[in-house]
Amino acid sequence: VQLQASGGGMVQAGGSLRLSCAASGRTSRNYAMGWFRQAPGKEREFVAAISRNGGNTYYANPEKGRFTISRDNAKTTVYLQMNSLKSEDTGVYYCAAGQSMASVRDYWGQGTEVTVSS
After folding, report:
1. Span 5-50, pLDDT tens digits
2. Are the C-beta atoms of residues 85 and 69 closer than 8 Å to each other?
3. How many CB atoms lie within 10 A of CB 28?
């Protein structure tokens, strides 16, 4: 499966952005999907994941209540709606796919950069 992330940009603290990840390939609907973030000088960290049918989601604690992951399987696209953005949300965001929400690291897309100014 190939993944293409988009939607990054610059935003002021408190603002919102929506990231998109388009998946291609005949079996793309059969994968759980997730988002990860890599802040400058830090390791890549988990942000959110969604099950194959979209019925289950999971978030890292700092993102709970602010971020929403969703998917449109007709468009084979996964979204990350980010609200109330903070400067610590700055980083490169990567989408990923895997056989399950627990292993959503099998395939990676290129990153899209998000910069939140305070």
Report:
1. 999 999 999 999 999 999 987 677 789 999 999 999 999 999 999 9
2. no
3. 19
